[in-house]
Amino acid sequence: MPRLNLTEDETRNLVLDEAERLFGEVGYDKTTIADIAKACGFSTANVHRVLGTKSAINQAIAARKLSGKIAEARRAAGGAETAEAALHAFARSIYEQTKIMVDNDKRVHHMVAAAIEERWQEVTTYRRGLLKEVSRFIERGCDSGEFSVVDAETAARVFHTSAVRYFHPLLVAELEGSEGAEFDDWFAHIVASLKSR
């Protein structure tokens, strides 16, 4: 049945919700714009008008997932009393969310992995968001005297580079359960470098 009186944002979110559901249930390759339109109660022309191609829908889903990860990690870090605790909570949340996606949502995991591999703009935006948050926690630690670094942005880039094993879905999938460093061991070493004088 047609859905009437939806705002542009509501329409866009409905298309993304239904597309994500179908991509998860049926797979990206087997889902058509007509399938998405039918699930929404729209015409295919309306789906094309709102989001364009299936690839554009896929990119919008990836952007929503990735920005949602950062928002959730921010919430996890929100109540921390120290910069170190906030940085730990933020990084742990990103890692845990990535593990859940890898373990429970294989089709979405493949979509995000493809986005990373193909260097979608959404992934670049996500990485910038991670760096911004990490830099903010490091600056907070420098201001409070917890950390002793000259350049918080450089320290954030080093942190992010060293965190790739815990943040990148392909590495999380491949290395989970291996004999590599555990998250808390890695974090203890990296945070020690932020404190060294």
Automatic annotation (TrEMBL):
<dbReference type="InterPro" id="IPR001647">
    <property type="entry name" value="HTH_TetR"/>
</dbReference>
<keyword id="KW-0804">Transcription</keyword>
<dbReference type="InterPro" id="IPR050109">
    <property type="entry name" value="HTH-type_TetR-like_transc_reg"/>
</dbReference>
<keyword id="KW-0805">Transcription regulation</keyword>
<keyword id="KW-0238">DNA-binding</keyword>
<dbReference type="Pfam" id="PF00440">
    <property type="entry name" value="TetR_N"/>
</dbReference>
<dbReference type="InterPro" id="IPR041478">
    <property type="entry name" value="TetR_C_27"/>
</dbReference>
<dbReference type="GO" id="GO:0003700">
    <property type="term" value="F:DNA-binding transcription factor activity"/>
</dbReference>
<dbReference type="GO" id="GO:0000976">
    <property type="term" value="F:transcription cis-regulatory region binding"/>
</dbReference>
<dbReference type="InterPro" id="IPR036271">
    <property type="entry name" value="Tet_transcr_reg_TetR-rel_C_sf"/>
</dbReference>
<dbReference type="Pfam" id="PF17935">
    <property type="entry name" value="TetR_C_27"/>
</dbReference>
<feature type="domain" description="HTH tetR-type">
    <location>
        <begin position="9"/>
        <end position="69"/>
    </location>
</feature>
<feature type="DNA-binding region" description="H-T-H motif">
    <location>
        <begin position="32"/>
        <end position="51"/>
    </location>
</feature>
<protein>
    <submittedName>
        <fullName>TetR/AcrR family transcriptional regulator</fullName>
    </submittedName>
</protein>
<dbReference type="InterPro" id="IPR009057">
    <property type="entry name" value="Homeodomain-like_sf"/>
</dbReference>
